[in-house]
Design goal:
By secondary structure, the protein is an alpha/beta fold. It is built from five helices and ten strands. β1, α1 and β2 form a beta-alpha-beta unit. About 25% of the residues lie in helices and about 30% in strands. A five-stranded mixed beta sheet has the order 2-1-3-10-4. It has a five-stranded mixed beta sheet with strand order 7-6-8-5-9, with helices on both faces. The protein has two domains: about 100 residues, Periplasmic binding protein-like II (D-Maltodextrin-Binding Protein, domain 2, 3-Layer(aba) Sandwich); about 60 residues, 3-Layer(aba) Sandwich (D-Maltodextrin-Binding Protein, domain 2), CATH 3.40.190.10. This is Amino acid biosynthesis protein. It comes from Fructobacillus pseudoficulneus.
């Protein structure tokens, strides 16, 4: 039976979207969901996953310029769109570690626009690093490595020094490919 490949861990919006799709569409119920550390891992192994499915958000992008748009054309001969749907993501938080003043930030590349809006509004220039998933962004932020971060709300607990600046409630369009 074909499986569904997407971004892990289970705390990602990608995993939640795959589960929602299975709950709403009987055609995908019962298929295993295989989680990967990043989407590029799947793109690089499409030949190994022939016949399977690949779930990607259309906002997908990396810090080095890879994106859903680019890959939709790059892998045209290896992927066929099987289904497109929309779903809310988990609420996202813009956070600050007030014990740091080093003008560093970490985010998932897909949320960079939110960080740019914050930089413009606050009139700051930040050094930005990227992580392949929002749970990894949260882990790096909570370990004290960055002054600012954007990640999914889930289990974040503000403290005296870890503050929430803003909360976002986005929706996402998801593309499920059949791998040829």
């Amino acid at each position: 039976m074909a499986v569904i490949h997407t971004l892990g861990p289970k705390a990602t919006d990608s995993y939640r979207a795959a589960k929602q799709m299975q709950d709403e569409d009987p055609a995908y119920q019962g298929q295993a969901i295989i989680l990967h550390d990043n989407f590029e891992e799947v793109y690089q192994h499409l030949a190994d996953f022939r016949g399977d499915f690949f779930l990607v958000p259309t906002a997908y992008q990396t810090g080095d310029g890879a994106s859903w748009t680019r890959n939709n054309y790059r892998y045209l001969d290896q992927l066929t769109i099987a289904k497109v749907f929309h779903a809310k993501t988990l609420p996202m938080l813009l956070t600050e570690n007030t014990s740091l003043a080093d003008h560093t930030a970490i985010t998932h590349a897909a949320t960079i626009e939110l960080l740019h809006q914050f930089m413009n509004h606050s009139n700051q220039e930040l050094t930005i690093d990227y992580a392949p998933s929002k749970p990894l962004v949260q882990a790096a932020f909570e370990s004290g490595q960055y002054q600012y971060a954007i990640f999914s709300k889930q289990d974040f607990q503000p403290t005296d020094t870890l503050k929430i600046i803003r909360e976002y409630h986005p929706e996402m369009v998801w593309c499920l490919y059949q791998i040829k």
